[in-house]
Design brief:
heterodimer; A: mainly beta; 4-stranded antiparallel beta sheet; globular; B: 114 residues; mainly beta; 6-stranded mixed beta sheet; 12 strands
Chain lengths: 112, 114
């Protein structure tokens, strides 16, 4: 499972509240990614990191921010959650061979 | 714009029948190509990948995929489907110079009838 954990696994929150999701990896991978999964859209990249304090935007970054102060942790923050951010969020790491990615178990977020 | 298309949203097959799931991509150069599988309520598992070389690649669980440059396709196949193959399947691509960022197709849900 590439040593990836996500927390929390489930969260229900209200519109306008801040939310932080955590991705933790134990294998010292340099590249980490956050995706969201919605029916009919597959997975879409939110943000990614290519090293400590090195991050960049993905396809659907509006309303999200990220931070990576340690190699093992990649945090995704919704500053003010909206109902459109109800989704399943997956963290991934890039393995050592040719861009293959391995995914965490996911976090199901519901914004009421 | 770069894109990945899985034309079939839902496919139903009988157990023991053969399977082909289609994937087409629109990129200027040959990207890295992947197939992932997701069982209900689970994360994504990498089935197989194509980077270069032999255009027919073998994966786990008896799956294979064939890269066809002329058709910009990377179709997934299995000669005999098992009931446990029921899941959602995602094709994904990454540019070779893109920090590994994946672009996914919309997914194909596979139902297997006994």
């Amino acid at each position: 499972d590439a040593g990836i954990t996500q927390s929390p696994r489930h969260k229900v929150t209200e519109t306008g509240t801040p939310v932080t999701l955590r991705c933790h990896q134990t294998e010292n991978h340099r590249y980490m990614y956050w995706y969201r999964q919605d029916p009919g859209h597959g997975l879409r990249l939110i943000h990614y990191s290519y090293g400590v304090k090195d991050t960049d935007k993905g396809e659907v970054s509006d309303g999200y921010s990220v931070s990576r102060s340690k190699t093992e942790d990649f945090l995704l923050t919704l500053e003010s959650a909206t109902s459109s951010q109800t989704s399943v969020y997956f963290c991934a790491i890039r393995g050592t061979v040719n861009n293959e990615q391995f995914f965490g178990p996911g976090t199901r977020l519901t914004v009421l | 714009a770069q894109s990945v298309t899985q034309p079939d949203i839902h496919i139903t097959v009988s157990e023991g029948a053969s399977l082909e799931l289609r994937c087409n991509y629109s990129y200027g150069a040959t990207p890295y190509l992947f197939w992932y599988v997701q069982s209900p309520g689970q994360g994504l598992q990498l089935l197989l990948k194509y980077f270069s070389g032999d255009t027919l690649v073998q994966g786990i669980k008896g799956f294979e995929a064939e890269f066809k440059r002329s058709q910009s396709s990377f179709n997934l196949r299995k000669p005999s489907v098992h009931w446990s193959d029921a899941a959602e399947y995602f094709c994904a691509v990454a540019l070779r110079t893109s920090y590994g960022k994946l672009t996914f197709g919309q997914g194909t849900i596979l139902t297997v009838h006994p």
